[in-house]
Design goal:
Elements lengths: L1 H14 L5 H10 L6 H10 L2 E3 L10 E3 L7
Antiparallel strand pairs: 1-2
């Protein structure tokens, strides 16, 4: 289940501008997953996802950390 959820997280951050862990949790719940905030936080850390600075839309969002970035 963990690997399926993490794969879905990667898919979601590619498809949507997700700014907060709460937004990500809401997307996952809409798809039938039932993660806690702590689970999402661990997943983000394990997947080495970071929050990017605000872009043209004024929103920051989650993205994969650049290669060689500290975990």
């Amino acid at each position: 289940m963990k690997f399926q959820r993490q794969a879905k997280i990667l898919d979601l951050i590619d498809r949507f501008e997700i700014e907060t862990q709460e937004e990500l949790t809401d997307h996952l719940r809409a798809l039938g997953y039932t993660p806690t905030q702590a689970t999402v936080s661990r997943d983000l850390k394990e997947l080495r996802l970071i929050q990017t600075p605000p872009g043209a839309t004024g929103k920051s969002n989650y993205a994969a950390a650049p290669t060689g970035a500290p975990a």
